[in-house]
What we know:
Number of helices: 9
Strand content: 5-15%
CATH superfamily of the domain at 2-32 and 89-197: P-loop containing nucleotide triphosphate hydrolases
CATH class of the domain at 2-32 and 89-197: Alpha Beta
Shape: globular
Amino acid sequence: MIIIGLTGGIGTGKSTASRFLHDLGAVVLDADSLGHDTYKKGTELYSALIKVFGNEIVGDKGEVNRSRLGEIVFANQNLLNKLNSLVHPHIKNHIKKAIRKLDKKKTSMVVIDAAILIEAGWTDLVDEVWVVTAERKTIHDRLSDKFNSKIDGALRRMEFQMSQGELINKADVVIDNDGSIGALKERVGLLFNDRISLARENNN
């Protein structure tokens, strides 16, 4: 089994690359989705988040309102750091458990799709780090199309992310996504086939 850590800033096309890998047969572990599970009502983390951020982050159904929580932490770096210190270890444990189960099933490729893969210190879980990149203008155009009137909030979140230069320095593979979606699909397909072939050779 080969484990790929897929990361990249908002608007780079990381999620699209992740979808292509899933379609090709990789098992994708979405760190964001796993994060939802870690602070469901009744969990240890849920109680810790309420204690730190107060009842204002609780939604109508008693679960954590992630949008409200995001508004709070992305306006304050110290609060964001506090949130990350609480959440990241729990998500990492979820990922570890999932990997162990998939390894027993003889899964060929696992992709950890995580925007904060490097910042959270999860690179020790993967064999390779793949970083999806794009020029700032391309990112701005994509965010404008996706978020419309909420683009200011999306751009503000970019300020809290690790820079592309830093990500590239940590990357084993850089996927330039300044071109068409077809070009991205082709690039991802080539990488997938190459790594799957390598994984099979190592298993023989």
